[in-house]
Amino acid sequence: MKATSKAVEVSAPDLANLAIEAHGGLERWRRFSTVSVHGINGGVLWGAKGKAGVLGDVTVTVDLRNEKVSHWPFGSPDRRSRFEPQRVALENASGKVVEELLQPRSSFRGHTLETPWSDLQLAYFAGCAMWTYMNTPFFLARPGVESEEIEPWQEAGETWRRLKVRFPAYVATHSTEQTFYFDHQGLLKRHDYDVEISGGTPAAHYVSDLKEFFGIVFPTKHRIFPRQPDAHSAAEPLVVSIDMDQFVLF
Whole-angstrom Cα distance, residue 220 to residue 37? Predict the structure, then answer.
């Protein structure tokens, strides 16, 4: 019986625990249910998808317990997006649904990096991206999320520890498997994934200017570049940039 009990009580890997503690700790994180942040978005992706400027200057509200995200304004001050894994919608200023799309991920079937997006597809991509970014690394403690430490990585004169993460099917995110890089303190440095809804495009996502808000540490600068076959990033183009401020947790 003792052996069975020990087998059931599996704790998160050491690097996962280190990262969670370095970013504020699970106990403090669980005091909050929502984060709101102001974001300035740039990079070549938006224009390539036919959506330049739609999300240039936005306030993003992210549910920290359920996978829900809203962007406002969405192209104009009278429109707001509502994202959930199985539904995205655009609402007007009074909250009336203007457009909606059920099972949105299936709408990307056959897409490549060059395939234009509809407004609802943009809302889906931005929603699942921001939910992942704002919940890193705390989603490591969520049911069904599996992680294992892999060999370390040398970059920028530093050695970063790496965590390979596998997400369960209920989480809408860039790809089922992703890799997160942490410094010796457990702070996030880089995040790799393949954007499945854009033909599996490989990305290297760097974060910097980490700051503490309400006791939780968030990156305030995000820079995303193409990832090469050897896992190094390409110097250009800058695919996406996000600069964040005005963090509020409640």
Answer: 10
- Structural domains of the chain sorted by starting position, each given as residue range(s) with its CATH number in brackets: 13-249 (2.50.20)
Q: What is the pLDDT of residues 24-69, one digit of tens each?
A: 999 999 999 999 999 999 999 999 999 999 999 999 999 999 999 9
